[in-house]
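Supplementary notes for students who missed Thursday's class. We covered one full example, reproduced here. Read the sequence, then the structure, then the short commentary at the end.
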Amino acid sequence: MNEERPGCLSGLLKLTLLSAFFVWTEEKFGFGKGCSCTGCGCGLILLFLFILLLCGILFGTDWTHLSVLPR
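Structure (token representation):
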């Protein structure tokens, strides 16, 4: 069984890039942007997506693998 786990620097780089991308998208499309509540809606969608990506980075979750059987 070959378990390839990313190193610490790789994880930190991913988190840094995710944080920078989150800040940029929040400034462009997030909370308070757009007319009426579209900024709030986009902000919540972005927050939900980035929480999923954060969990994927921290816990190594493969969100594309949908099978219930072990690999």
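Commentary. The mean pLDDT is 75. The CA atoms of residues 8 and 14 lie 10 Å apart. If anything here is unclear, bring it to office hours.
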